[in-house]
Amino acid sequence: MAFSSLAAVSALFAARHVSAVLMVNELAVTPQMGWDNWNAFGCDVSADLLQGTAERIVEIGLKDAGYHYAVLDDCWSDGRYSNGSLKPNFEKFPNGMAAVADAMHDLGLGFGMYSDAGRYTCGQYEGSLGHEEIDAKTWASWGVDYLKYDNCYNDGQSGTAEISYNRYEVMSKALNATGRQILYSMCNWGQDHPWDWAYLIANSWRATGDIYDSFDRSDVRCPCENKDGIDCAFPGFHCSVMNIINKVVWFIHRSQPGGWNDMDGLEVGNGGMTDDEYKLHFTMWAALKSPLIMGNDIRTIDAKSYSILTNPAIIALNQDPAGASMQRRWRYYVSPTDAYGGGEIQMWSGNLAQGDYVMVLLNAANQDMHMNATLADIFVDNGGAQSAEAKGSWDLYDLWANRMPDSVANRILGANSTANATEYLYNATAKSYKEGIMANETLLMGKHIGSVKGLGTVSAVVPKHGVMAYRMRPKTASTYKRDEL
Ligand SMILES: *[C@@H]1O[C@H](CO)[C@@H](O)[C@H](O)[C@H]1NC(C)=O
Ligand SMILES: *[C@@H]1O[C@H](CO)[C@@H](O)[C@H](O)[C@H]1NC(C)=O
Ligand SMILES: *[C@@H]1O[C@H](CO)[C@@H](O)[C@H](O)[C@H]1NC(C)=O
Ligand SMILES: *[C@@H]1O[C@H](CO)[C@@H](O)[C@H](O)[C@H]1NC(C)=O
Ligand SMILES: *[C@@H]1O[C@H](CO)[C@@H](O)[C@H](O)[C@H]1NC(C)=O
Ligand SMILES: *[C@@H]1O[C@H](CO)[C@@H](O)[C@H](O)[C@H]1NC(C)=O
Ligand SMILES: *[C@@H]1O[C@H](CO)[C@@H](O)[C@H](O)[C@H]1NC(C)=O
User: Fold this and answer.
1) Which residues are catalytic?
2) Superfamily (CATH H level) for 20-318
3) In Å, what is the CA distance from 297 to each residue of 41, 49, 52, 54, 340?
4) Any idea which architecture 327-402+446-479 has in CATH?
5) Within 6 Å (CB) of ligand 4, which residues are found?
6) What is the pTM of this model?
7) Any idea what DSSP says for residue 416?
8) Where is the signal peptide (predicted)?
């Protein structure tokens, strides 16, 4: 029967243990978090930029919120020495790269580095194709902890999963052979279906073309809008937040502890979206288990971007030990009430540790929408209306209701100190997200706003281009206990 086999499959996923998953190294058991300079600075990199950013990541509590890696993107090198080793640009990095790595480590951060599985990087600097071993050794000798590995100028070595796999595997082996734990972040833009194979060799893989700072603008440089991404032969760039969400929906469940679909770096704080749009962007990246890599200027971050990026109840979705992405349960197009009122609405849900669920109402229409999610739809994977879950009662926690007020954020940013903000900031250095979730920490749960009865409906007015996000917890846990497989 269709329902019981569906329920069995979802129980299998829920019961999956990290130890049973093939892992390429010991890293990214939950999606990696950090900062990368590309979205805000492009090629304009320097030791000063990394130092200033890293200091502030620590001072304003972003490190303790979980943002561990400071990643230097393209344009840092200056060719190769005659012995074949990559040479840093000493104008940008006067003391070389080992000094930068040391400085990051002194601050308690991991240091990320960039290269390309091609002849050149995307910025036309030296690539690592054919130089994998020597480059991996160089990075390990500098103390690098993370590699973002791009896909430009790959000499046509793509087109089938096997060709792409073979090209990216060489670096995976070279990194492993250094003996240093280096997080391997593959950036091949979803070419050749990396969700089918990259978990064997990498910790994350870019799933689409490059993001840009727009909610839903269509752009010819990011094609395949109407093919929903699965067979997009030309990933492109300038992909909007909604474009990326609607492309990854088909394979997002292929993430697993140690290997994640990467929806690209965050644009929160770069100025191209409204506050509601940035909240939606951050919520979806978190709940779809994308790496959370900030892409804004941390030295000039404003209060609203800060309170989005530090929202503990949302980060807890990303760092949840179950490691399961939520799934889209429905998508409807709504008719315009005026020339610009239409668009799409979606409902997503998925399981979290401790028998909790996440449910997100997403409104991409150009007007506020009264949205309704039935428990039968939220729990369609468990058997829909026939399931114990849909028949049970649930407590609802609003994951944005406890957002840090601007006044508190401005105090922290003005003083470069997180004093007196424990009411809003979670310290994952003191207690990991996993431990905090197991201890039912209020900061990670969100605000209790009520409950929904068996076979009932969760309703909310969702702002234009916004989300409502909920943690759902069974009122009587024992009622829906599944048989363990
Ligand atoms: C190549 O030369 C550079 C500059 O002297 C040096 O830093 C690097 O360690 C050398 N690489 C190898 C593999 O010896
Ligand atoms: C090398 O790979 C093995 C599994 O193939 C893994 O257990 C080990 O942690 C890896 N080592 C490093 C340094 O990545
Ligand atoms: C949600 O339910 C309310 C109340 O029944 C209704 O007015 C509204 O149109 C529904 N929303 C949608 C998107 O169907
Ligand atoms: C806080 O840090 C920023 C960025 O590093 C700096 O510009 C500012 O002067 C600092 N403020 C204080 C009060 O130290
Ligand atoms: C934190 O609170 C204490 C006691 O109320 C106060 O003395 C101190 O100035 C506050 N610190 C900041 C950075 O606001
Ligand atoms: C977070 O906890 C660690 C370890 O207990 C502590 O060293 C650090 O100062 C705390 N950070 C903040 C921002 O309070
Ligand atoms: C956390 O909440 C769950 C579900 O209500 C409960 O089973 C568990 O005992 C709680 N854990 C702690 C440490 O209070």
Assistant:
1) 150, 210
2) Aldolase class I (3.20.20.70)
3) 8, 9, 10, 11, 33
4) Sandwich (2.60)
5) 52, 56, 299, 415-416
6) 0.95
7) T
8) 1-20
